[in-house]
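To: structure desk
From: M.T.
Subject: fold request, one chain
Message: Could you run this one when you get a chance? Sequence is below, nothing fancy, just the single chain.
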Amino acid sequence: MKKIGVSQKAIIFNRKGEILTIRRSETAPSNPGKWDFPGGDLDFGEDAMEGIIREIKEETGLDVGDLRPFDVESHINKEGDFWVTIAYIAKAISDKVILSCEHDEFRWLTASDFLKLGSSDKLRRFVGNWATHWWCV
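Reply: Done. Structure tokens follow.
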């Protein structure tokens, strides 16, 4: 049976304008070893803002400020399911990251350095859009 899903990702930046990227562990249930942003699937009935705040806290231990949506993308995956991904930007209140068991490394990177990592085309587009339109915010 085909389904519709909503996922969310957060581009979190620090005082230096670097963005947080986290690497999925080799035992992660999806995309093992890939660089990612904090986020995940929205639970049924969950408020979108509460969902992304929950995911950020679970995956990084961070509190964030100035959280707001800035981009959205939709696609049909290889299983034929329809997914919508909402991208957010946020400012990290501190740089102290505590990773979840789904992740094994984190880095604070410039947008150009992130684009050199092994990541999905979708996340690279989000970073490109952020760097082009939101960097000065």
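Reply (cont.): The mean pLDDT is 87. Let me know if you need anything else for the meeting.
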